């Protein structure tokens, strides 16, 4: 629910395809009061939702406003269930952001840093703590990667570290990396 619009839902989905993975952000809004932002790409509009003329405005739902059903579900989990779910969500977010980082690296290969490197390192540290136990260790902030080859190397290193924790990447990950830096 972190990226959900007010009174709506959000889900990122990764679809594997021959040309590489497709990441799609799906948003659900209540029909009442819904409008289509001017910068949105609409695949189909079966509900005759009107265009707003305004650009999309990112207003995330604060946790205090999450639906009661979600809060009840969270409260009903055992500590072990909560731990497993936290680990699974962290790993899923890592791989999703890994793909986004690779995509942004390919779009702007001259950037001085790997996009989202601090976030990826923190997610890796969270997973390491959840899998191996112990204290959380602040990752080093060495993000320098001036060339696309350096960015690809850093992405390979991060993917290798996550895989070494027993958190194998989706099949699309290695193929996607070869698309941006063969």
Provide structural commentary.
With 182 residues, the protein is mainly alpha-helical. The protein has two domains: 9-74, no CATH class; 79-180, no CATH class. Helices cover 44% and strands 8% of the residues. The protein is built from five helices and two strands. The protein has helices spanning 68-76, 79-107, 117-132, 148-164, 172-180; strands at residues 9-15, 22-28. A hairpin with a 6-residue loop joins strand 1 (9-15) and strand 2. Helix 2 runs antiparallel to helix 4. The model has no long low-confidence stretch (mean pLDDT 82).
Please tag this protein with its features:
182 residues, mainly alpha, 2 strands, 44% helix, globular
Counted up, domains total 2
Largest sheet entry = 2 strands, antiparallel
What is the radius of gyration? Answer: 19 Å
Distance between the termini: 36 Å
Order of helices and strands: EEHHHHH
Oligomeric state as shown: single chain
CA-based shape: globular
Low-confidence blocks of residues: none
Strand order of the largest sheet: 1-2
As a percent range, the share of strand residues is 5-15%
Number of alpha- plus pi-helical segments: 5
The helix content, as a percent range, equals 40-55%
**Helical/strand content category:** mainly alpha
Query: How confident is the prediction overall: mean pLDDT?
Result: 82
The strand count comes to: 2
């Amino acid at each position: 629910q972190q990226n959900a619009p007010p009174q709506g839902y959000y889900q990122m989905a990764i679809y594997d395809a021959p040309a590489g993975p497709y990441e799609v952000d799906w948003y659900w809004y209540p029909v009442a009061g819904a409008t289509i932002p001017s910068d949105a790409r609409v695949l189909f509009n079966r509900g005759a939702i009107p265009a707003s003329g305004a650009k999309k405005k990112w207003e995330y739902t604060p946790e205090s406003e999450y639906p009661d059903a979600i809060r009840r579900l969270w409260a009903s989990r055992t500590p072990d269930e909560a731990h497993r779910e936290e680990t699974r969500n962290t790993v899923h977010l890592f791989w999703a952001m890994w793909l986004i980082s690779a995509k942004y690296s390919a779009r702007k290969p001259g950037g001085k840093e790997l996009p989202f490197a601090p976030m990826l390192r923190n997610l890796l540290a969270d997973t390491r703590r959840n899998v191996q136990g112990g204290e959380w260790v602040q990752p080093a902030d060495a993000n320098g990667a001036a060339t696309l080859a350096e960015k690809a190397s850093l992405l390979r290193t991060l993917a290798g570290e996550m895989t070494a924790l027993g958190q194998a990447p989706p099949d699309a990950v290695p193929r996607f990396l070869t698309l941006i830096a063969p």
